Amino acid sequence: MGYKSFEELEVYKAAREFRKKIYKLNRGLPLEEKYNLGDQMRRAALSLTNNIAEGHGRYHFQENIQFCRISRGSLMELIDDLNVCIDEEYFPLASMEELKAEGYLVNKMLNGYIAYLKKRKNQHTQST
Per residue of the chain (128 residues), what is the pLDDT tens digit? Predict the structure, then answer.
C-alpha cells in the first residue's frame, strides 16, 4: 500500500469522522452526564483515533495490530455508550442508530486493516 502517514489510511479517515460526530453528540448531553458519560465518550473517541496513529508509528506489524485492537475496543465502548444514550432517551433513536451503524462500519474497516497487517506480517516472516 505504501502509506507515508496514518492520515492517509481510509480507516483513520473514517474513525476521525466518527470521532468528530461523537464529540458533537457529547456537547448535547444533559448537564448531569457531562462529567460522567461525556468524559468517558470523549476518552474512548480519542483513543479510537490515537491508537490507529500510534500503531502506525510503531513500524512493526504485531505492535500495529495490537494498537488497532485497542482502537477496536474503544470503538465497541462507544457503541455501548450510544446504547446508554438510547436507553436514557437523550437523543432521537434514529440518530443513535445511524451513529451506531457508522461505528460498525468503522469496525469493519478496522477488522480489514488488521487482516491486512496480519497478512503483511506473515509475508514478511516468510521472506526472512
Answer: 455 799 999 999 999 999 999 999 999 999 999 899 999 999 999 999 999 999 999 889 999 999 999 999 999 999 999 999 999 999 999 999 999 999 999 999 999 999 999 999 898 778 76
* Segment (H or E) for 33: none
Q: Which amino acid is at 10?
A: E
Say if residues 71 and 47 touch (Cβ distance below 8 Å).
Answer: yes
Q: State the amino acid at position 96 in one-letter form.
A: M
What number of CA atoms fall less than 13 Å from residue 21's CA on the CB side? 19
Task: Please report where in the chains the cell 455508550 appears, as a residue.
Answer: 81
CA distance 72 to 44: 10
